[in-house]
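pipeline: protein-struct stage 2 | run 1193 | RNA polymerase sigma-70 factor, ECF subfamily
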Amino acid sequence: MSTLSGEIIELVHSKQEAAFEVMFSVYYPRLVYFAKEYVPYEDAKSLVQDAFITFWEKNPDVSTESQLQSYLYTIVKNNCLMRLRHEKIEKGYVNEAELRIQNQVYSSALQQLDTSEIAFQEIETIIEKTLSDLPPRCREVFVLSRLEGKKNHEVAQELNISVKAVEAQITKALKVFRIELRDFLPILAYLLSTKL
């Protein structure tokens, strides 16, 4: 389920701005969707932008998409943890027990989240296997919707089926993916999100 070609990753690594823009357009929405599960939406956007700046400045040696994903998600995860810690300090001793408990839960969840390259390789293997096990029409609808980013009405038009049929096939596929990928759901929230 690779999104970026090896050539694009190579061009990103050699600091080609056009390739970086392609990478940004693919991963920015996914990373924001991931981060906003832990921090407010505006903070999520800012933290993800910071992650891309870090990536550009450090120019890490990534040669595969799983390495790239691991690197980006790890930076965003760490940025979220720092933001949550900063918020805790910022709030000081103000009596906002609920917010402090929520931050502790989010921090704990983020710290336990596996963003290693191996995790992304495992995710890719599970996705490919799960996709191949889906019924043909269900797989076709899911690929067009989630992997190619088409709206439900566009998928319906392309396959000459109703929007309701598209929604039913997506729901069916998502149930299977949620079971198969239950250990990786925070990272895959973008893929499994509802897009109408």
